[in-house]
Amino acid sequence: MQTDTQFSSAAMKRTSDWIRSQEFPSDITIQVGGSSFNLHKLPLASKCGYIRKLVSGANGSRVTHLEITGMPGDAKAFDLVIKFCYGVNFEITADNVAMLRCAAEHLEMTEECKPGNLVGRTEAYLEEVALASLEGAVTALRRAEELLPASDKVQLIGRCIDAIATMTCGDGGHEGLDDVGAPPKPVDDWWADELTALRIDTFQRVMIAMKARGFKGIAMGTMIMLYAQKSLRRLDMNGRERKKMEPRQEHEKRVVLETIVSLLPREKNTMSVSFLSMLLRAAIYLDTSLACRLDLETRMAAQLGQAVLDDLLIPSSSPEGAGTAYDVDAVQRILAGYLENEGEATRLDYNTDDDFASAASPPNDVGPVGKLMESYLAEISSDVNLPVDKFTGLAELIPERARFNEDGMYRAIDIYLKAHPSLGEGERKKVCGVMDCQKLSREACAHAAQNDRLPVQTVVQVLYHEQRRLRVPPPSQAPSGAPSYAGGESPALSYRPTPSFNGRERSAPSSEVSRLQRENDELRMELLQMKMRLRDPSGAAPAAAPPLAAGGTRSFPTSGKPPLPKKQGGSGGGGGGGFMKKLGRLNPFVRDPLGGGKVRTKPPKDRRHSIS
C-alpha cells in the first residue's frame, strides 16, 4: 500500500529509502506524529513488544496500518528505533540516550522480547558513560526534562539529579562547607549555565539534592541568583505604566518566583540586599503570596545595614493616582524587623559570655541605617499622595540612637511641607513633632528660623535652643568638671578643643576675637527674632509684661522658670528682650517645677532684675 510520507529530517528520508530498496516490499505503514513510515512487520515485531501485540494473532496479517500515539521524542526517536530494529549502525550519545531510553520503554523493547534489546543497551550507556561524568549527566538531564512524564516513569530525572549532586558536592562529605574559615565551593560557569536553563521544578529538585549533600551558603545563593536573573529579566517593574502579561505567562512567572524564594539559603549574607530588593519588586509586580513577600522583607531587614537608597525605592502596586509611588509600608516593616533583630542581638550580648557575644554580635550599623532612612524620607517626601500618618509613622520608627543630628530629618520635613502646602497648622505641628530641635546644627537653625513653612511653635523652639547654645560660656570660662555642653547644647553639635597627642591643649583664639564672634552671633539672633515678630504679627500675645520698677528696671516672676541670661557687652535692644520673654512662655521644654500652680505675675521687690 502506497502512502504519502512526510520526513522531518534527511536522516529519516535515507532510512526510508534504504528500507524501500530491500527485496521484500513493505507490509505495514506506521504513523508517528506527522510522519509515515513504510516498514516490515517481522523486524519490528521481533524487538518491539508493543508492535508484536498488535500484529500477532488471527487478525495480525490483516493489519497494514498502525498509529503510535504518545511516542517520546516523536518521529525523531522512532527513526532511531527503526535503525536499531533493522540493524543499521548508529551512535548512542548523551544527547540522544534519554530519548532512546524513553522510546524503548514505550515500545516495550525489553530483554524478554530479545536479549540485548534497546532498553538494556541504553541502560548500559547511562550507567557506564552518561552518568559517570558531570557533563554527561547535565546533558542527559537537559534532554530528559523535555520528555516528561515519560522520563520520570523510568526514573531518569532522579538518577541524573543524584549523579549531578554527588559529583558537584561529594557524597555527603561537605556538611562543614559554610563553617567559619571554610572557603565556599566554587561554581563552574559551564554547568551552572546548563542547570540554570532547566525548568523551575527540575531546578528545584537539583537544588534540594545538592543542599542535602552540603551545597549551600554563598555557592547555592550564586546558583539561585543566576537562575532568577535568567527567568525574571524580562519583567518591567519600574514605573506605573507597566505592560501586563498574559494570564498564563504571569502565572508561570509567579510560580518561578515563589519557588526561587523558597530555595533561598537561610544563612545571613549569602544574598546581596540589591538582589533581595529585586525579588521583592518582582513579588509585588506579580502579586505573589503574602508569605513570599514577608519572607523577602525579613531577609532584607536582617541585612539593612548593607542597603543603599535605591534598594528601598520599591514601586507600589497601587494604580497611578490612588496611592504613593513607593511602597512605604514595606519599608516600614523592613525597618521594624531590623530593630527587632538588633534588640535580640543586644539581649544576646548581655546574656552570654564575652567570647560568644563577640562572635555572635553583628556590626553596629544603626548609625548608617538611621542616615539611610532619613534619606529615604527625603526621597518620598515630595510625593503628594503621601499622608501625614505614613510620614510621621516611619520617622518616629527611626531610633533616637541612630540620629546623631536632626539635619537629615529637618531636610525631609522641609521637603514634605513644601510638597503639601495645604496642610493645616495642627498637621504641620505633627510633622515637625518628629524632629528634636536641640540637635539641629547652626546652619539648620539659621534656615529654620527663616522658614515660612514651619509652624510658629517650631520656630520658637529652634530660636530658644539656639539662644541657649549661644549663652554657653567658652571652655576657658566654664567651671572645672562641668560638661562642655551644659546649658542645653547637644554634644553632637558642639565643638570643643581636644587635647593634642603630647597632652597640651590646642591653642584657643584670643579672648578679644572670641568676644567679637559671640557678639556677632547674638546680633544675628536678634535680627532673626525681629524677622520672626514681623512675620507673625497676629500670633497670640503673651501675658502682660510686668510694670517698670523704679530706676527703669522690669520685674520678673519668681516661678520655677529660670530667667534668660543677660546679654554681654550691652549688645541687644529692648525689642529682643520682650520677645525672649514671649519665647520663654511658649517654650514647651520649660516647666514649673512645683507642678503647674499659678505663676505669680507680680514678684517681690527683692527679686527684681534690670534689663539693659
Automatic annotation (TrEMBL):
One of its GO terms (biological process) is protein ubiquitination. InterPro entries: BTB/POZ_dom, NPH3/RPT2-like, NPH3_dom, SKP1/BTB/POZ_sf. SUPFAM superfamilies: POZ domain. It holds the Pfam family NPH3. Pathway: Protein modification; protein ubiquitination. Residues 26-94 form the BTB domain. Residues 478-492, 539-552 have a biased composition (Low complexity). Coiled coil: none annotated. Keywords: Ubl conjugation pathway. Belongs to the NPH3 family. This is NPH3 domain-containing protein. It comes from Triticum aestivum (Wheat). The lineage of its organism: Eukaryota, Viridiplantae, Streptophyta, Embryophyta, Tracheophyta.
